[in-house]
Design brief:
The complex is a heterodimer of chains A (168) and B (163). Chain A has 168 residues and is α/β, with parallel strands linked by helices. Helix content of chain A is 32%, strand content 10%. By secondary structure, chain B is mostly helical. The chains are: A alpha/beta (168), B mainly alpha (163).
C-alpha cells in the first residue's frame, strides 16, 4: 500500500535530496566579481532587461556569502592566485561558471605571457559559456544548465564533489 | 484576580487568608496559567532553535581548512595581524586638524563673495565677521598650544610638584 496515492492534491511529497537541491538551485547567489569586459555583460544579466534574479541569483559582495562564482573575463596569472583564494574562501557547496572565451581557454589573449589560458587549470569549472562576450541570454542559459546539474546531485549519499586539492 | 488578592491581603490579612483557603483548585490553576504562556513560548522557542541548528548540523556540508578560514581581504593574502596598536597621540592630532579644516571650509566661501560685500559698502562688517570667527578658532589653537599638546612627547609635570 502506497501512502503517496492516498494523499490529497495540496500535500506535496519530495525526497530530502531533491528538497535540498531545489532550495540550493533557487538561491544561487553569485559573487560580484568581474575580471574584464565580460563583466559588462554580467552586469547586464543582473539588470532589469534580462533579470537573472528570476532564477534566484543575486549578486553578493563577499565570497563568504556566495554559492556561485562567475569568472567573467581574462584571468591573468597574477589574478589566478587571488581567484583561487577567493574560491577557497567561499562556503561549500560552491559552483563556478566560466563565462566567455578568455576564461574558457584564454581566448584572444591565449598567447600572452601574462594570461592563464583556461580557468580550469586553477579551478574546477561546472559550466562553460562560450562567446566573446556571451550575450546575457547565454549566461542565463549557463545558469539554467548549472541548476540542472545541481538537481542531479545526491548530497545525503555523500556523492558530492569534494575539493581534495584545496584541503591543504 | 491577582491584584484583588494582594489588595485584600493589605487591607485585611485575616479575611484574605480565609478567602484564599476557600479558593477552588481551578481558580488557582487559572492564576498560574498566566505564567504558563511564557513557559510554553520558551519551550517552543528552544525546540525550534534546536531543530534549526540540528538540521543544519545534519544536512549542511562542513569543510573547513586553513585557506578558507583566512581573513577575507578580497583575495589578497593578508600581511600581519589586524590587531596592531595605533599611537593614541594620533587622535589628538586629528582633533587639532579639525580646527584648520573648519577654518578653510568656512573662509573659502566668504572669500568668494567678499567683493560683493565691498560693493554693497559692508566691507568692515564682513571683515569683522570673519575675524571673530578666526579668533574663536585661534583660541582653540592657543588652548592646545598652552596645554603642550602640539609636542609629540608631552611633558607631564610630576605628581609631587602638582600636589
Amino acid at each position: 500500500m502506497s501512502l503517496l496515492n492516498t494523499l490529497p492534491d495540496y500535500v506535496l511529497t519530495t525526497k530530502t535530496d531533491e528538497l535540498i537541491n531545489w532550495m540550493r538551485k533557487s538561491s544561487l547567489w553569485y559573487m560580484l566579481f568581474g575580471l574584464a569586459c565580460c563583466a559588462i555583460e554580467l552586469m547586464h544579466t543582473g539588470g532589469p532587461r534580462s533579470d537573472i534574479e528570476r532564477f534566484g541569483a543575486t549578486p553578493r559582495a563577499s565570497a563568504r556569502q556566495s554559492d556561485l562564482m562567475i569568472i567573467a573575463g581574462t584571468l591573468t596569472l597574477k589574478m589566478a592566485l587571488r581567484t583561487r583564494l577567493l574560491y577557497d574562501q567561499m562556503p561549500d557547496p560552491k559552483y563556478i561558471i566560466s563565462m566567455g572565451s578568455c576564461s574558457n581557454c584564454g581566448g584572444l589573449f591565449q598567447l600572452a605571457y601574462s594570461v592563464c589560458d583556461g580557468v580550469d587549470k586553477v579551478l574546477p569549472v561546472d559550466v562553460y559559456v562560450p562567446g566573446c562576450p556571451p550575450r546575457p541570454e547565454a549566461l542565463t542559459e549557463g545558469l539554467l544548465k548549472l541548476q540542472d546539474k545541481i538537481m542531479s546531485e545526491r548530497w545525503l549519499a555523500r556523492e558530492r564533489r569534494t575539493d581534495q586539492a584545496a584541503q591543504s | 484576580m491577582a491584584e484583588a488578592l494582594s489588595e485584600g491581603w493589605e487591607a485585611n490579612p485575616r479575611g484574605a487568608q480565609r478567602e484564599r483557603t476557600s479558593l477552588s483548585k481551578a481558580k488557582y490553576f487559572s492564576m498560574y496559567s498566566n505564567y504558563g504562556v511564557p513557559l510554553a513560548l520558551t519551550v517552543i522557542g528552544l525546540l525550534f532553535m534546536a531543530a534549526m541548528v540540528g538540521l543544519q548540523k545534519l544536512l549542511a556540508p562542513n569543510n573547513p581548512f586553513r585557506r578558507k578560514l583566512m581573513p577575507y581581504e578580497c583575495g589578497e593574502p593578508p600581511t600581519g595581524s589586524a590587531w596592531i596598536n595605533f599611537n593614541v597621540r594620533f587622535y589628538l592630532i586629528a582633533l587639532v586638524f579639525v580646527v584648520f579644516e573648519v577654518e578653510v571650509a568656512f573662509i573659502y566661501p566668504v572669500a568668494t563673495v567678499y567683493l560683493d560685500w565691498i560693493r554693497r559698502g559692508q566691507r568692515w562688517f564682513a571683515l569683522s565677521e570673519i575675524l571673530i570667527f578666526l579668533l574663536i578658532l585661534f583660541v582653540g589653537l592657543v588652548y592646545v598650544w598652552v596645554k603642550r599638546d602640539l609636542e609629540w612627547i608631552k611633558k607631564v609635570p610630576d605628581q609631587d610638584s602638582v600636589t
